[in-house]
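Example 3.2
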Amino acid sequence: SRRYYPAGEVSAHLVGVTGIDGHGLEGVERSYDEWLTGAAGKKTIRKDRYGRVVENIAWQDKQEGKSLQLTIDQRLQAIAYRAIKQAVADHRATSGSVVMLDVKTGAVLAM
C-alpha cells in the first residue's frame, strides 16, 4: 500500500519510515505497522505425492491496512520544528525535544 508523508523534514521524525518490505522502521510507521499494513491471506491445503491439491483445509481472507489520522497541526509542527532546531544550534546541544498538547482534549498538536 502507498503511504502519504506530508511536510517532509518537518514531520519526518514523527511519521517515520518504512523499509524495503513496507514495514515501519521508525515513528508512527513502526508503532502502527500492523494497523497500517493489514495481513496477508492464508490458505491451508493438502497435496498428494504428485503435488496436486486434494483438499482445501482452511481459508483466511487478507485484511486490508487501515488509515490513520494524526492530530498534528502542521502550522504548529513547523513552528516547533524551527524553534527546537534553532535552540539546539544556539546552545550547541546534541538534541532537543518539544511536545505541544491541546489542554482541553489532550491531542498532540506538535512533537
